[in-house]
Amino acid sequence: MTARGFDRLNAEIIACGRCPRLRAYCEQVGREKRKAFQDWTYWARPVPNFGDPRARLLIVGLAPAAHGANRTGRMFTGDRSGEWLFRALHKAGFANQPQATDRDDGLKLHDCAITALCHCAPPDNKPTIQEIANCRPWLEQTFELLPAKVIVALGQMAWQAVIVESRRREWLVGKAPKFGHGARVELAGGRTLLGSYHPSQQNTFTGKLTEQMFDAVFAAAKEILPREA
Cα separations (Å) of 10 from 102, 115, 206? Predict the structure, then answer.
């Protein structure tokens, strides 16, 4: 039932048309393309969740990149952020390989799934507040379907969204915990929220996020999960 529900949710995400601005932008990028990807047929639609439908580790990002997931049709696939993420997941044992180039590259996640606040690529990587709200039901349903015990929020916006969802589900009460790299919050039901800087080029090129820092987040996730096995 979990796998069927996961596939059904993904089909609904792909068919979503709640944000005309984002749909138009994704399609425009897919038509105009980047010179390096002229031979590609861009996905240019909402990007579904990716990973294990029985995952206990859930990673929450911001949105697909215009020439990354909007091109390949798979979360964090085909851009520099994905290179960082899948290398780290492979090192921690959550992915069968460190590379992610396209939907047919053989990549599989184990006990891990990836979602985002927005499933369409936004101009300048900046979805509006309304667009994030339009996409929120997909995040809520993802939380409903997956037996997640560890949630990794990539960036402050993802952290805030997980906090909101945790309050809605009564996993968290009291003062909202602050975001920071390596931040850790214990939630009800044996769940844990971990914070990480997003592996964007803005963070990785400047050294704000190093491989060692990023690896430490997923090492912590791996350390937590055996207690729930």
Answer: 17, 10, 35
